[in-house]
Design brief:
The protein is of the alpha+beta class. It has helices spanning about 60-75, 85-95, 105-120, 125-140, and strands at about 5-10, 15-20, 25-30, 35-40, 45, 50-55, 60. A 5-stranded antiparallel sheet has the order 4-3-2-1-5, with no helix packed on it. A two-stranded antiparallel ribbon has the order 6-7. Strand 6 and strand 7 form a beta hairpin.
């Protein structure tokens, strides 16, 4: 499943995958406990494929950040935990994205990225990232 179908819902922990659209919003299934919820159109929802991380030169898509983490960790869960110290999280993120903008990317953002990566890794949903990456590089040629 691509990141186009994975969402974050403001005020709710974890990630959700889109199941179907309804008249007043849509139905989503939690990746944490597999419970389905109805999400209204008024809810603040972010699609992971639309999220980017600020760097000093550009905005890097979240997909690329996940790929960088996956390469660093050889496909395994992250070596740092989301609850680790701010310094440890920032040091780890510098390894993943060396020129990220420290003024605009907060420790809470890094925690979320690490939590989301681990959740996607746990559900074996990171393989699609490389397929999308290959298709994008083939289109450029």
């Amino acid at each position: 499943m691509s990141l186009d179908k994975v969402i974050s819902i403001s005020g709710k922990p974890g990630l959700y995958k889109l199941i179907t659209q309804t008249r007043g919003g849509f139905v989503a299934e939690s990746l944490v406990d597999n419970k389905r919820i109805s999400v209204s159109i008024q809810s603040n929802v972010s699609v992971l494929s639309e999220i980017a991380i600020y760097t000093l030169t550009e905005e890097v898509p979240l997909r690329q950040v996940f790929l960088n983490i996956k390469k660093k960790e050889n496909g395994a869960p992250t070596s740092v935990k989301p609850k680790d110290s701010k310094d440890k999280l920032e040091e780890y993120f510098f390894d993943v994205l060396p020129d990220y903008d420290e003024d605009r990317v907060y420790a809470s953002d890094i925690k979320k990225v690490i939590q989301w990566y681990n959740l996607l890794q746990q559900h074996d949903m990171l393989n699609d990232l490389e397929i999308v990456e290959e298709e994008a590089s083939n289109e450029e040629e």
